[in-house]
Design a protein that fits this description.
binds calcium ion; mainly alpha; 406 residues; 49% helix; globular; 18 helices; two-stranded antiparallel ribbon; 5-stranded antiparallel sheet
Length: 406
C-alpha cells in the first residue's frame, strides 16, 4: 500500500509537464532516464529511488549551476571576493572555540578515543579537531536534503559526472540500510553527517564503531570519530610521526622551495639554517626523516616544516590553512604554544587580481595549479621564482608589485 502510494505520487508529478515548471520537468526526466538505470545497475531498489526523489524539486538556488535552456551564467570564481589570508582563519579568536571545546571532548570521550587511537593510529586531538572544524563537534545543523542537493548538482552543475556518482552512492547508503531517506541530510555541497564525507567517501571509509551494524555518522559519536580516524589512516597517516611545527627560515632559504613534492631530509633544511621557533634542537629521528617547507602566506606569515602527515590532513580538505588549523588546534588542545609569527596584514587583492597573476604566469609556462584566484603552494612558489628571476627577494605572495613584474 505504502509503496503503491509512492509510485503513484512519483508518476503523477512526472506526468504534469504542462503545469510543472519546465526545469522541474527536465530534472525529473534526467533522474528517470540517466540516474535510475545507473542506480538499478548498482542494485538500488526501485522503492528507494522513488522515496528518495518523492516531492523533490531542483534546488535552483545552489551556486555554479548551468541550467538547461538558460544562458550559461556560471562564473568559475567570484572575482570580486576579497582574497583571504591566514590572519582570520588562524586567529586566536577563531581557534579558541575549537581548542576549548576540543579539550572538553577529549575528556568526555577519552575512553572511546583511546580505543580509536589504538585501532587506527591517529592521535585523538587530531580527530577531535577535525570533528570541531567540520560540524562544531556535532552541534552544527546539517540542513539540506542530500537527494535534492546531489540530484540538482548531478543534473546541472559544472561537475555533473562527479555528482552523478555521488548521487548513486547516496542511494546505495540508504539501500544498504545505514540510514532512512529522511535521515540523509547534507551540506549545500552534498557533504554528509558530522565528518562531512561525500557519499563515495562514506562508502569507502565510514565505519560502524558502536557495533549496531549501521555506519551512522549523523547521530553516533563512536561512528563519527572512528570514521574520521579511518579516513586519515586510509589516506596514509603514519602512526607516531609528528605533523611538524613552526620554523624560522633564513632569507638564504628560498620560499620557492615549498610543497608536498619537494620533500628532503630535515637535516638539509637544518644545515641551511632552518630552526624551530622554540629554539629547541631537532631530534636525531626528525633529522633523518623527510620534511617539507610549508609557508601558507609566503614571507607574509609564519613558516613551517611539515611531515607527510600534514598532507594527509590536506587530503581531507585541500587547503593548507585548513590542515594547519586542524593540526595547530590539536597541538593547542595538548598544551602546545601559540604561533610565534603573525600573518602580516597585506594589501587587499581580489580573487580576480590573483587569477590574473596566475594567468600571466601560466602564459610563461609556469605551473600555478590552475587560475582559481587562490594562492596555493604552486602559485606561491611560482611567484617566488618570478621575483628571484627579476633580481628581487622572493616573497612568494601575490601583490601589485608582483603583478608589475609580469
Ligand atoms: Ca553504528
Amino acid at each position: 500500500m505504502f509503496r503503491t502510494v509512492l509510485i503513484a505520487g512519483f508518476l503523477a508529478l512526472a506526468a504534469l509537464p504542462a503545469r510543472a515548471d519546465a526545469l522541474t520537468d527536465d530534472f525529473r526526466r534526467f533522474l528517470e532516464a540517466d540516474v535510475w538505470p545507473q542506480a538499478k545497475a548498482e542494485r538500488v531498489p526501485r522503492a528507494v529511488f522513488e522515496e528518495a526523489f518523492s516531492g523533490v524539486t531542483p534546488r535552483l538556488d545552489l551556486p555554479d549551476l548551468n541550467l538547461p535552456g538558460r544562458p550559461a551564467k556560471v562564473e568559475e570564481i567570484n572575482r570580486q571576493a576579497e582574497f583571504r589570508s591566514g590572519a582570520d582563519y588562524l586567529s586566536e579568536k577563531a581557534l579558541a572555540g575549537t581548542v576549548n571545546t576540543g579539550r572538553a571532548m577529549l575528556k568526555r570521550h577519552g575512553a572511546l578515543l583511546k580505543r580509536i587511537e589504538a585501532r587506527y593510529g591517529v592521535p585523538a586531538p587530531v580527530i577531535v579537531a577535525i570533528w570541531g572544524r567540520e560540524s562544531a563537534f556535532g552541534a552544527a545543523k546539517i540542513p539540506e536534503n542530500a537527494f535534492a542537493v546531489l540530484g540538482t548538482k548531478a543534473w546541472a552543475s559544472r561537475r555533473k559526472e562527479m555528482f552523478r556518482a555521488e548521487l548513486v552512492a547516496a542511494l546505495k547508503i540508504v539501500s544498504d540500510g545505514h540510514l532512512r531517506v529522511s535521515q540523509m541530510r547534507s551540506s549545500w555541497a552534498g557533504a554528509l553527517g558530522q565528518p562531512q564525507f561525500m557519499p563515495t567517501k562514506f562508502l569507502a571509509v565510514a565505519v560502524d564503531f558502536d557495533g549496531d551494524g549501521r555506519r551512522d555518522i549523523w547521530n553516533s559519536v563512536p561512528d563519527t570519530l572512528a570514521s574520521i580516524a579511518n579516513y586519515l589512516a586510509r589516506a596514509g597517516w603514519r602512526k607516531g610521526v609528528a605533523w611538524g611545527g613552526e620554523a624560522r627560515v633564513p632569507a638564504a632559504v628560498s620560499c620557492s622551495l615549498e610543497g608536498p613534492d619537494r620533500g628532503r631530509p630535515l637535516a638539509e633544511f637544518a644545515g641551511a639554517g632552518v630552526t624551530r621557533v622554540s629554539g629547541e634542537a631537532f631530534s636525531a629521528r626528525a633529522l633523518g626523516a623527510s620534511a617539507h617547507l610549508m609557508m601558507p602566506a609566503g614571507r607574509a606569515g609564519p613558516a613551517f616544516l611539515v611531515s607527510p602527515n600534514f598532507y594527509v590532513v590536506k587530503d581531507y580538505n585541500n587547503s593548507d590553512l585548513y590542515a594547519l588549523y586542524v593540526l595547530h588546534a590539536a597541538d593547542r588542545m595538548s598544551g602546545g604554544a601559540p604561533l610565534v609569527t603573525r600573518f602580516a596584514a597585506t594589501e587587499r587583492l581580489t580573487r580576480g587580481d590573483v587569477a590574473r597573476l596566475q594567468e600571466a604566469m601560466q602564459a610563461r609556462g609556469m605551473d600555478v595549479g590552475g587560475a582559481d584566484g587562490l594562492a596555493g603552494f604552486k602559485t606561491r612558489r611560482s611567484i617566488g621564482l618570478v621575483e628571484e628571476t627579476a633580481g628581487r627577494p622572493a616573497t612568494c605572495w601575490p601583490s601589485k608589485g608582483v603583478a608589475a613584474l609580469l
